[in-house]
Amino acid sequence: MSLTVITQRMGAKSYQRIVVGLVLSASLAMLAACSSASRNGASVVDRNGVAQRPAVTTGQYVVKRGDTLFSIAFRYGWDWKALAAKNNINAPYTIVPGQSIRFDGRAGTVPAGGTTTTVVSSSSGSKTTVTKRPVASASRPVTTAPLPAGPAPKGWGWPADGILIGKFSSNGSLNKGIDIAGDLGQPVLAASDGTVVYAGSGLRGYGELVIIKHSDTYVSAYGHNRRLLVREGQQVKVGQKIAEMGSTGTDRVKLHFEIRRQGKPVDPLQFLPRR
């Protein structure tokens, strides 16, 4: 039956109402799909191959094997101290696979008089130690006030030799750091003294990644390595070789380098010596 015949039998107004209804239904379905993708935390990968995740202000994250408090804070753009405070996590900031990390300020608690099991494991899963400790009867109040920023570490050095092929974007949406092109396997160096707080490949878009804590305020990150030469908890000095340059998680051999202050990306060129 032709469209003209259908229109004549139904009446022009009835036909128009049906068409409008179909268009509205399709539009609502598209909006629902977009909303679902947003709620599920869909990542967007930028031109530099680094997954861009929106800053998380509410909700929770379930800890996976290989995660550290620092890697979770880095992934979602949080200051690690603020995230620890929100979840009543004390030094040495150990987290447990399956544990929920809250981002809305409502830290989880354990019933009074109970015990909590702490699982200490490396990213490689080579060794696991289980200990139990008593839990305080009342949790500490959670503070949401911004923590004061400390001074920047002194004596920053370049993390690798090579050509600068990507610069920091001021809004952080295109490039949260800088990119240095080099040769496969060339040394990647610690940019300042500090402690390795993450070494692994669990952060999408960064490949084999090292994160170093330099102070309570500053951390640096080194992505796309071929091989990691340090372990979590290891102390490193500026200029020490921590990895070999590679192309994991990206399309060419390069180092992606970031400096973050209280969880927020800052321009590394403001800290590195001129060359």
TrEMBL record:
Region (Disordered) residue spans: 115-151
Leader peptide range in chain numbering: 1-32
MF-aspect GO terms: metalloendopeptidase activity
Tagged with keyword Signal: yes
Any single GO CC term annotated in Swiss-Prot or TrEMBL for this entry: cell outer membrane
The entry's keywords: Signal
InterPro entries: Cell_wall_metabolism_enzyme, Dup_hybrid_motif, LysM, LysM_dom_sf, M23ase_b-sheet_dom
Biased composition (Low complexity): 115-131
Domain of life: Bacteria
PROSITE patterns associated with the record: LYSM (PS51782)
Residues of the LysM domain: 59-103
Full protein name: Peptigoglycan-binding protein LysM
